[in-house]
Amino acid sequence: MKNKLIILVLVFILASCVSTPSQDTNQPTTEEITTTKDEIPAATADQTEESEDAAPTSSPIQGGKIVFESGDEGMLGDLYVMNEDGSELTKLLDSGDYGYQHFGYPDWSPDGSQIVFSGLIPPWEILIANADGSGLHKIEGTTNGMYPDWSPDGQKIAFSIWNESSDICTINIDGTGLQKIASSDANEIDPSWSPDGSEIVFYSYQSGDDSELYVMNADGMNIVQLTDNDKDDWLPSWSPTGNEIVYLYGRGEEDYIELRVYNLDELHESQYTTELAYPDFSASPGASWAPNGENIAFVSNGRIYTIHFSGGIIFEEVYSGKEFTGYPSWK
Hints:
Elements: H1 2-18, E1 32-35, E2 65-71, E3 77-83, E4 90-93, E5 102-108, E6 114-120, E7 124-130, E8 137-138, E9 145-150, E10 156-162, E11 166-172, E12 179-182, E13 188-193, E14 199-204, E15 212-217, E16 224-225, E17 233-238, E18 244-249, E19 258-263, E20 268-269, H2 272-276, E21 283-289, E22 296-300, E23 303-309, E24 313-320, E25 324-330
Antiparallel strand pairs: 1-24, 2-3, 2-25, 3-4, 5-6, 6-7, 7-8, 9-10, 10-11, 11-12, 13-14, 14-15, 15-16, 17-18, 18-19, 19-20, 21-22, 22-23, 23-24
């Protein structure tokens, strides 16, 4: 990453000698926080520190949308959608309009035309709706299903199903071909597909009292433990680039919950991990990669933040609304 940053800085300097960059007249409408690559300053969420000398290593994608759940209580949530900068916030689906108590755990289809999510009556079940909220319907055979994740080819859904314990299943989007691919008394929870569809990451208590991240083939074979930490590792989300997984570390009201990134090339937490463990952000359920594989949306204290890089790491608040907010999905 440091070598890439040096190269990009040199390119930026050379380019500036032959052309004059256009000035960005857009003014930020949300709070931003920047951390440098070398240290994390003791700052608060109201402070901004941007490097004016360094060239940006990446920038937010333009025109993306984030869908998420939000409500006044954890089990009384609806689905909302907004632009990645927080503008054009819209309640997409009101759970009460359809006889449900809660809509949650949304995930975009690969082409962005549909959303899969869970609905609580009770019990839970897996639902699909069009991106504009129309055409809502249940996937048959998914009773007690939660944490749905759309396969990269758009044909299957992986999800957790709760009976006496939590197992991981896959099913075709038309409700056929239900398969249980991971099952034990240790609970297998919250699957996330690799971008090529060959593997699935999830978290489980197979190793003991705290949960760890595991990866397996898409058919459930060859389960391998990734993390081995002294606190819970949970809610993994596979990067679109395929080489990183973002997840949460720590759990409970007594814990400060960190946002961490696991690098699959190096088989350990990546250099981002320390920089993302910002003191003012105790993470809440859910984190999602942007389609560019670099930016991340995550939740902290009922607010949604996006992360991008511009000489450092910038945390930008894009949503602050209901008491409970969780599980953003970015397209």
